[in-house]
């Protein structure tokens, strides 16, 4: 049986270097977009429409959807909410459709959907569910870290490493980026909160007074839902 490829891309800026037409792309933005998306879908959101910019988000205003916009860690003025997971509780999102734009996560989704075989959303909240799904698909796996404004970040890379850790004993050929992400995860996995405390994005969120968001985003396997991109909307698989 031919080995499938398992690749990690540390930033969407590197995406043009890869061929992902036969790959399931897992988009990763741990602090906080993909965590909030997973939590919102688990809590009954009918769908989440990721859009690249604030103007496009505003264009959905007459549709009766919830509008969510975040830039540089803050809710954009005039919007219902941003990308804090605590805004995606059942009482707020159940039965609703949300239009979402964020600094990094929705950009990564927008870039990957152009050529990927399939796009799904990963977070520590649904780590085991994502890995179980990937193992059972006869497709390459491409772990796309949203990073920070097209630059490398630690927390997304650690999640990529956590996925590699579960898949590496199966029938995959790992690229060097996957091996490096796995090595980093082995260093950090005993205390993810302590390790990620030194990340630059963690510092940004602390400066905004939202440390609880960081803790929430590091919870392991609290949801079973996997958001999958169908057309232009993320829905429950």
TrEMBL record:
Sections of the chain in a coiled coil: none
InterPro entries given in the database record: ComB-like, ComB-like_sf
Keyword Hydrolase: yes
Record Pfam families: 2-ph_phosp
Keyword Hydrolase on entry: yes
EC number, UniProt record: 3.1.3.71
CC cofactor: Mg(2+)
Gene3D superfamilies cross-referenced by the UniProt entry: ComB-like
Catalytic activity: (2R)-O-phospho-3-sulfolactate + H2O = (2R)-3-sulfolactate + phosphate
Keywords associated with the record: Hydrolase, Magnesium
Stored SUPFAM superfamilies: ComB-like
Source species, domain of life: Bacteria
Sequence similarity: Belongs to the ComB family.
HAMAP family linked: ComB (MF_00490)
Listed name of the protein: Probable 2-phosphosulfolactate phosphatase
Gene designation: comB
